[in-house]
Amino acid sequence: MERDTRLKHIVLIKWKNNLTILISFDIDGTMEIGDPAGAVTLEMVKTARAKGIITGSCSDRPMSAQRAIWEEYGVEYDFVCYKHLLSDLKTQFEVEEYYHVGDRDDLDRKYAIQAGFGFFWPDEAAASPLLL
Amino acid sequence: MATGYAPSSMYRSREGMGIWEHKGKVAAVGVGHSPTERRWDERPETSVGAWSIMALRNAIADAGVEPDQIDGIVIVPETTTGAFWPDDKPLPQDVINAFVQTDDPLDGVAKLSVEWLLKNMPELTNINYSVYAPVCMSNALNVAAQAVGDGLAHTVLVLKAWHNLEGRYYQGGQNAQDAIGGTSAIRSLWGAPACYGTALQFAEYCRKYGKDHDMMTPFIINSRRNGLMFPEGYWAQHRPEELTPEDYQLARWIAKPANLFDNDIPIMCAASYLFTTAERAKDMKQKPVYVLNHVDSDAVPRGLTPTLDEVEAECALTGRKIYEGAGITAADLSFENMYDGFTQFHQFHLEGLGYRGIGFGDALDFYQTDISIEGPNPVSPSGGNIGSGRSRFWMHTDSIQQLQGRAGGRQITGVNAEIGVSGGPMPLGGNYTVWSATPD
């Protein structure tokens, strides 16, 4: 699939505020609702959003399933995408800082570094002032 | 009673063997499943041993027989392809102590033996025939059919179970060692994922026939849809997520052109079937599903990875053997349930069968037509491993249930369920069973 088409499907809600931070969350092994469960809670995501941070998920789960998860738990989100498409995601949000939170060195951390994102392990994110 | 692996004489591996001598004289009657889980939670009651017992008992109950009527058992002793108990991990002593144990502490935890099962199923008092089949339910079904046909036993339980441990699949076992012996030393040298050989074959397939990966999309969506109507399956039980074209086409490559959703998800589960003679089956609780033939593919590739030419030649040979031994033609198939875990096996099997008249290079175009359970050309009504997780047995359960008329939401409606075929896994190296609603 060509890149323009990919972008069309990745981004659900375009950034339209003067927000300066974006955090992408992996799900499995990262979020409390993942399989396995991780250290990041839904309340932490809500807290981040209350601070004006752009949030969404970048997981291997189907993007349609990612949307369904956020909606099932009543947590607003700005995007869903696959973790290997973090660099595409970055082009859609003009902010000052980009972070990805994940539990896999060979996937989450690798793709975050390649895309120029900062990276948190789940327990680091759970202790970060951005989410508290 | 010492149990060994089935001898090669039990398999039908050659072309030209004629119609199977026991055609229509062996039947599957009972089906039993355990629940599914993504990984083991290390409780005794969810161990692979406990779930195997559950599946066996469910099959017995489903068939409506008394346990003492059963005189044979065929099992696959291996319960994983990539989740091995780590050498440095303490044994789960509480689990081991919860069962009657054999000399092997991992029996019932990360492997199975007939001895362990019989020690823990005291109701099976009349077993006088037992045999192991390697790796897959597909293989065990061939052995069970032949055993019943040959009169080695008259009422046989067949079992395949899977465990899955915490951590990542394929990261333990010999892959975690400093040295690997045999041809694996060459195959594994670069850390290629399990699907890479199939991906290579599929890449050549696309080049040869002018196809592309996106053309797999309808097959993927259809398989997951069917899987979500399989109440015994993982996705239906735990994550009822449909897949969209975007979900599939944008997923990351595991070994290009095979992406994440071309691979199946490792799970824990167990399934059992009760096989018996056609005569005895008449008095059992469920409608008999007759075995018309069973086939083995024992081809050895010339290199480490089979070429597309080798794959196509072997699938065509398998198709001919399937029809020859059953005394049928492709036109007699109501449906097919060939293996799919990796998805890119499926078109090879389908074309080898000549299902609905297709030839090599036609399957991806065929996928663009109506391949649903409601249509005239149902493809993988089970949903396979893609629809329900890594078991390699959904295709068999579905075939039996389709022909018994109890496939529920998956019941094919575009054609009458009269004859089906299931089997796998590999194009070179698989076992297949032809099933029928009637003995002839």
Radius of gyration of chain B using CA atoms only: 20 Å
Q: From N to C, what is the helix and strand string of chain A? A: HEHEHEHEHEH
Shape of chain A: globular
Order of helices and strands of chain B: EHEHHEHEHHHHHEEEHEHEHHHHEE
Which consecutive residue ranges of chain B, at least 5 long each, have pLDDT under 50?
none
Strand content of chain B: 5-15%
Give the end-to-end Cα distance of chain B, rounded to a whole number of Å.
36 Å
**Counted beta strands of chain A:** 5
Hey, roughly how much beta strand do the residues of chain A contain?
15-25%
Strand arrangement within the widest β-sheet of chain A reads 3-2-1-4-5
Let me know the average pLDDT of chain A.
Answer: 90
Q: What's the number of extended β-strand segments of chain B?
A: 11
Largest interface: A-B, 17 and 17 residues
The outline of chain B comes out as globular
Question: So what's the oligomer here?
Answer: heterodimer
Main sheet: strands, sense, barrel of chain A: 5 strands, parallel
Strand order of the largest sheet of chain B: 3-2-4-7-1-8-11-10-9
Provide the structure class of chain A: alpha/beta
What can be said about this structure in brief?
Chain A has 132 residues and is of the alpha/beta class. Chain A has helices at 3-10, 42-50, 63-72, 86-90, 105-115, 122-126; strands spanning 21-25, 54-58, 79-81, 97-101, 118-120. The longest helix of chain A is centred in the last third of the chain and has 11 residues, at 105-115.
